[in-house]
Amino acid sequence: MAVAAPALRADGVTKRYGDRRALAGVSFEAGRGELVAIIGPNGAGKTTLLQILAGSLRATDGAVSADGAVGWVPQQAAIYGKLSVAENLRLFARLERVGDVEAAVDRMLDQTGLRERAGDETGRLSGGNRQRVNVAVGLLAEPPVVLLDEPSASLDPRQREVLWEFVGGLAGRGTTVVYTTHNVAEAERFADRVLVLADGELLFTGSPGELQQAAEGEDFEAAFVAFLRERGH
Amino acid sequence: MRWLLLKDLQILRRSPLLVSLLVLYPIVLAVLIGLALSAGPAKPRVAFVNLVPKDATTFELGGEKLDAASYADKLFESIDPIRVKTRAEAVDLVRSGDALGALILPRDATERLQNTINLSGGPPPRVEVLYNAEDPVKRRYVEATIESRLSEANTLLSAKLTTIAAKYIGIVVSGGTFSLLGQTIDVLGLRRSQAVIDGVAAGLPADSPQRAALAQVSRFARLASDNLDVSKPILASIGSPVRVKQTIVAGKRTPLDAYAVAVAVTISLMFVTLLLAAGMLALEREEHAFGRLVRGLVTRGQLLVEKVGLAASCACAVTLLMLAGLGLFVGLDWSRAPLWLAALALGSLGFAAMGVAIGGLAREVRAASLLALMLSLPIAFLSLVPSGSVSAALYRVIEVVSALFPFKPALQALNAALNDADPGLAVPLVHLAVLTVAFTLIARLALRRFD
């Protein structure tokens, strides 16, 4: 599916670990302000694809291009437990070479609602708050593209709602958001487009409604399972 | 990179237990070693039974009265005596472990000694020594201490006998008096005998047949006095017939306590640097921050350099503090402080590079700390194996293995910096620089396991 002005583009991305193939020529594009969910069973290659898009893992073959910096929010909070919320944000803002470090830290404290916890060590925060800091670090440099790996995995339902509201706000402001999730209901609710990945192959790209129609399930989750079964996964 | 360094220092500041251990460990080690060096080994407790009657502790040698107790005092300089009255009490003390050994001076010890000195016949005096062999190391120590002190006492007696024998020879040669069985005996002596004979011969007619006979006796007297004079140094040499000339052919003479300081500081340097470097690198992965960092924020090489620099700087500061602490107990030459710094700096860099290699391979903080300990202890022990204690082939293998790790060159560098010991400072410093590069490269390869 071609996008008019892609903010992110993957072209034939392949990753092999020895004889094992993790990704097999995955190609897709994501437009500005688009919310793209990557779904698939365990071991499908979702995290590997996101790591390659983020630049933290090198592809065996293929190419990735982005319109500007790419923000990266790994599945497990990649922050330092012994540092406070503000110190983590300040450290990564400096490493990202953000122009006005303190302004960026203030902005992220406001956006994530963590201002009152700014001085707390992140190791003492709840899983949800740690994840908020994790997301905030990925957004410090105000990247036009943000990649989130299972962002809601460790959150309770209320925290998930807050997160998706926040992510929706990002997309509303023109940021391209690509995320992986196991929760297909989230993909249905919060994605403009879904990519279905299984055994390293991209099996489907389209809107959640198109996927449901393609597999003719009672609901989106049933359609997704039927879709995978029809293709031998 | 400086922000990463600052971050690591903040993390260390917020880990008071870890920092306390890293700082306190070398200080405690320094104090313990210092106390051990300044206090010396504790005296072993030995039961002592003196069965010699109080009025018979003296013996006579060459007209001089000597007290056997003064020879026992020599022994007590090396042992802590538990004085008991009977042999049975001594045996009980040794059996119970309260004493490591027992020394029993029999009732007839001085009497037998007197007979031996007087050449009156009979067996020589004999002391009895009992050991508790439950602890072979302590038993060997007590055995060696008692044997060496008894040997000293024998040597002192032998020297006394030699002096008296020389005095008698002097009387035979030059004449004089001595006491025997309460009587003073005047001895003419060979020299005065010769003078008397020469005087008598001079008064005889030149053709007197007795003159030739007296000339013969006079020649004998001169010959005898001249040769007996020579016997004095011969007697003196009997006391210690073999002398030792010591020559060092390899290595300089380093006092044992100064070498112990070098070993203690090197071991502390190794532990602090290895644990810090390995732990801090593994922490980047454990906190899942590695992936975020290396996607353009810092390179893998910069990350390694930062960890090596952090661990080396901290360890250098801590071990310098340790050296200052040890300086309170052992005389250190502070004018050599710049050389200490060079040795500590290169040593800590070598250990830090090895530490990041361990951290890269282990990937988890606990596993990295465990691996650091498991690797460093055997390497340190191997590096301390002295030549000659194992076969030549095995020692070659040990030398090669030791050369592959920073402990031995770090110890050599520190020993050279502290004590001007062989092989000097330059060779181990170059060795450490090479190991630093090699281990950093291994760490760089190991970082692939972080992905």
Account of the protein in words:
The complex is a heterodimer of chains A (233) and B (451). Chain A has 233 residues and is of the alpha/beta class. Chain A is 37% helix and 26% strand. In chain A, the strands form 2 sheets. In chain A, strands 5-6-7-3-8-9 form a 6-stranded mixed beta sheet, with helices on both faces. Chain A has a 3-stranded antiparallel beta sheet with strand order 2-1-4, with helices on one face. The longest helix of chain A has 16 residues. Chain A is globular and about 50 Å long. In chain B, 30% of the residues are buried. In chain B, the strands form 3 sheets. Chain B has a 4-stranded mixed beta sheet, with helices on both faces. Chain B has 16 helices and 8 strands. The longest helix of chain B is centred in the middle third of the chain and has 39 residues. With 451 residues, chain B is of the alpha/beta class. Chain B is elongated, with a radius of gyration of 36 Å. Chains A and B meet through α2 of A and α1 and α10 of B.
Supply database-style keywords.
heterodimer; A: 233 residues; alpha/beta; six-stranded mixed sheet; three-stranded antiparallel sheet; 9 strands; 37% helix; B: 451 residues; four-stranded mixed sheet; 67% helix
Number of helices, counting only DSSP H or I runs of 4 residues or more of chain A: 8
Beta-strand percentage of chain B? Answer: 5-15%
| Total beta strand runs of chain A | 9
Q: State the total count of DSSP E strands of chain B.
A: 8
User: Which value, in Å, is the CA radius of gyration of chain B?
Assistant: 36 Å
Secondary-structure element order of chain B, N to C: HHEEEHEHEHEHEEHHHHHHHHHH
What is the average per-residue confidence, as pLDDT of chain B, rounded to a whole number? 83
Shape designation of chain B: elongated
Strand content of chain A: 25-35%
**Class inferred from helices and paired strands of chain A:** alpha/beta
- What is the N-to-C succession of helices and strands of chain A? EEEHEEHHHEHEHEEHH
Oligomer: heterodimer
The Cα radius of gyration of chain A reads: 18 Å
User: Globular, elongated, flat, extended or rod-shaped: what is the shape of chain A?
Assistant: globular
Taking the alpha carbons of the first and last residues of chain B, their distance comes to 20 Å
Alpha-beta classification of chain B: alpha/beta
